[in-house]
Amino acid sequence: MSHFNTLRTKLTDIGILKSSLHSLGMVVHTDTEVRGSDCQRI
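^ that's the sequence the OP posted. Answer follows.
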């Protein structure tokens, strides 16, 4: 079962975030759509 959570945050340097995620072996997708259970989209 999928759940969406909302968190309030302020990103001041997206480059650092992307670099950190890449160093953890994660692929970063931008300008994309997220789909959950029952075809919920955000």
